[in-house]
Specification:
The complex is a heterodimer of chains A (375) and B (266). Chain A has one domain. Chain A is 75% helix and 2% strand. Chain A has helices at 2-9, 18-46, 53-81, 89-114, 125-152, 157-176, 181-184, 205-227, 230-240, 242-247, 252-278, 288-301, 307-327, 331-345, 349-356, 361-373; strands spanning 118-119, 122-123, 190-191, 280-281. In chain A, a hairpin with a 2-residue loop joins strand 1 and strand 2 (122-123). Chain B has 2 domains: 1-84 and 171-266, 3-Layer(aba) Sandwich (Rossmann fold), CATH 3.40.50.300; 93-169, no CATH class. Chain B has helices at residues 47-55, 77-83, 100-110, 126-138, 154-166, 187-199, 212-218, 236-241, 243-253, 255-265; strands at 7-18, 21-32, 36-40, 62-67, 70-71, 85-88, 172-176, 204-208, 221-226, 229-234. The longest helix of chain B has 13 residues, at 126-138. The chains are: A mainly alpha (375), B alpha/beta (266). Chains A and B meet through helix 8, helix 9, helix 10 and helix 11 of A and helix 2 and helix 3 of B. The structure holds adenosine-5'-triphosphate and magnesium ion.
């Protein structure tokens, strides 16, 4: 286990040459273009409407993927770049989802009922409610991020991982507590959140598709720029060697806090968008399952790469879509075994392994042997 | 020695206890500006622990540290770094998965004003990279900029260790056994680096070293530590001829070293 952990935090991080990154940019642009055209291409090829039928279904699949990709990326900022092992990421995702859901359910209608704010003929009250809800999400998850970073300043490593798990669990318990059932729906969660009609994902799937795609692209660009900024470089240094970081003049607490807040805000916004997409917020979103999802997506794709978690989210989406069909109720077992094999043989994930241009067959068998022989 | 004898760093009655063990025992020492002051002593004498107290990596059980006349006891290491205190480590302490250039660039960036530009590329601040390249040239690592630090041979890692410290242009350099693990052939190059730093004119070095020939030839003053305490302090000549040092420490523990000392100081 110790070896696996050190593998995780020692993810390869090579600064790519300018030529290589330019090629990467063209590839990225092509992918974005393809995704933007997807609904139309799909409709064109299958001769179906863009607005409903299979096109609508696959748009839905991709919307989930875009949102989960952002969520996974936010986790990568923490674990892959800053080297913070946190098992509480669901607190941010679920926190964002519930903040959005609660606001739209309990406060939004009151505002819309009593005010009418217009620009010319256009009623922008609903838009403003959505903006206010989003701002509130940012505030709430920022506070959550600060809370986690305060604890992480005192407790390190695996101990922090355990504490973070407990902290997220506290949020989870709050989210399903019967005491607040009147507002949160307790175990059931919030359902039928009154999402403004113009953005309603059932009515306006295509619009929602573009919103989710834009969200994913923008968050990726922000995260990418951040990890390559002077601040982001310090995040990586912190992952590599905290004592040296301190001695050369950086305050680790400041940078860990920043990393936490940024990761929390991005995860929280992903959660908020997910609640709009589902028109609901359920205790699953704050549960350990959601944290484990982030972990799996990140490791699968390649930790410390940003693009890896996006791929990981895609893989998870496929797994979620097809494994049940293929393996029935046994699918978690099959997936678990595949995941163990991946961690043993591709500890740097898909992207990390591609960059290293090297498979770890020998080391993989050694690790497996280590597990079996109990070494 | 400098004429005005301005004290840059002063430890007053420093004490560090680990459980029952007193690693640093009532140590008082004054480091004069623009001098090279060596600290010697057998393994476990408390030299590295003293460095940990001076650099802020550890808090003393008792006693105080003054820098430029100000009490800096309890000040965090990153704040001391901004005051101009740099430190290199006995056990190589680098960023293994980053390039050689990035290792040093990070240290140069640390003392600049751009650490919180979260939405600009690190590459748009070329001054830090230039500084890093210049430092790498000084420590003899030019041409290795793009290599991952972890694949450097040991001798080069020691140079990188120094480079990281130099990149922030510290006034006071705490060097903990820079030659640790180096072969004798690699030592002269390192000595040249240290001499070049001193030739700068405004640097102060505190050096922990086991190689007596080196210590004797480049030190302005030497403090001898033994079991956490200061056994003696003086010029190389005074130390080499000091009876207490001879009998209690060098004679008993470093039999042939005592001879070597005399040979070197002559
Ligand atoms: N963090 C620590 N916890 C407990 N004991 C420690 C710690 N650091 C150092 N010691 C003990 O304090 C004493 C002094 O150690 P220190 O590393 O300062 O010696 P040193 O003079 O640097 O030795 P060397 O020449 O081997 O580097 C030793 O007995 C060591 O075991
Ligand atoms: Mg030591």
């Amino acid at each position: 286990m110790a070896e696996v952990k050190s593998d995780l935090t020692a993810a390869p991080n090579r600064f790519t040459s300018a030529a290589k990154s330019l090629r990467g940019e063209w590839l990225g642009l092509a992918v974005i273009l393809l995704l933007a055209l997807f609904p139309f291409l799909f409709g064109w090829f299958t001769g179906t409407s863009v607005q409903d039928g299979p096109s609508k279904f696959w748009q839905g699949q991709l919307i989930t993927f875009f949102i989960m990709a952002v969520y996974a990326m936010s986790y990568d900022l923490l674990i892959g770049y800053t080297g913070i092992l946190s098992f509480g990421h669901a607190a941010f995702f679920g926190g964002g989802a519930y903040t959005m859901g609660l606001f739209l359910t309990h406060i939004g209608p009151k505002i819309i009922g009593s005010y009418k704010i217009t620009i010319g003929a256009a009623d922008i009250t609903e838009v403003l409610v959505l903006v206010a809800a989003t701002l509130l999400v940012v505030v709430v998850v920022t506070l959550l991020g600060l809370l986690f970073s305060v604890v992480s300043a005192r407790i390190k490593g695996v101990y922090f991982a355990m504490i973070s798990l407990a902290m997220a669990d506290a949020i989870h318990i709050l989210s399903k507590a019967t005491d607040f059932g009147k507002w949160t729906g307790a175990d059931e969660g919030l359902h039928g959140i009154p999402v403004p009609m113009w953005i309603n994902p059932t009515q306006h799937r295509l619009l929602f598709y573009f919103i989710a795609l834009a969200f994913c692209v923008i968050m990726y660009l922000i995260a990418r720029r951040m990890v390559d900024s002077p601040t982001g470089r310090v995040f990586v240094a912190l992952r590599e060697n905290e004592s040296r970081v301190r001695m050369i003049g950086y305050n680790p607490v400041t940078y860990r806090t920043l990393s936490f807040v940024v990761a929390a805000v991005i995860a929280g916004l992903a959660g908020a968008l997910f609640s709009l997409w589902n028109m609901g917020a359920t205790p699953t979103m704050t549960s350990a399952v959601t944290t484990i999802n982030a972990l799996i997506m990140t490791i699968l794709g390649g930790i410390g790469t940003l693009i890896g978690p996006i791929l990981g989210a895609g893989l998870m989406q496929i797994v979620g879509q097809f494994f049940y069909q293929w393996f029935g109720a046994r699918w978690p077992l099959v997936f678990g075994l595949i995941f163990i094999a991946l961690v043993l043989f591709l500890p740097y994930g898909v992207v990390g392994t591609y960059r290293l241009k090297r498979l770890e067959w020998k080391q993989g068998w050694q690790r497996l042997w280590g597990l079996v022989a109990g070494k | 020695m400098t004429a005005e004898r301005e004290i840059l760093l002063e430890a007053k009655n420093l004490q560090k206890e680990f459980g029952g063990l007193v690693a640093v025992d009532d140590v008082s020492v004054a480091i004069y500006a623009r001098t090279l002051h060596s600290i010697i002593g057998p393994n476990g004498a408390g030299k590295t622990t003293l460095f940990n107290l001076l650099s802020g990596m550890m808090d003393p059980t008792r006693g105080q540290v003054f820098y430029q006349g100000k009490d800096i006891t309890g000040l965090a290491p990153h704040r001391r770094a901004h005051l101009g205190i740099g430190r290199s480590f006995q056990i190589t302490n680098i960023f293994p998965n980053l390039t050689v250039l990035e290792n040093v660039r990070l240290a140069a960036q640390a003392v600049g004003r751009d650490n919180f530009r979260m939405f600009q590329r690190a590459g748009s601040f070329p001054a830090y990279e230039e500084k890093a390249r210049e430092v790498l040239g000084r420590v003899g690592l030019q041409g290795r900029e793009g290599v991952l630090a972890q694949v450097l041979p040991h001798g080069d890692k020691r140079k990188l260790e120094l480079g990281i410290m130099l990149a922030s242009d510290p006034h006071l350099l705490l060097l903990d056994e820079p030659t640790a693990g180096m072969s004798s052939e690699q030592v002269p190059a390192l000595l040249d680096i240290i001499r070049a730093i001193m030739a700068d004119g405004d640097k102060t070095i505190v050096l922990v070293e086991h190689r007596m020939d080196m210590v004797m030839s480049i030190s302005d003053r030497i403090t001898v530590m033994h079991q956490g305490q200061v056994l003696a302090e003086g010029t190389p000549h005074e130390i080499a001829t000091n009876q207490t040092v001879q009998s209690a420490y060098l004679g008993a523990l470093y039999g042939d070293l005592a001879k070597e000392l005399e040979d070197n100081v002559g």
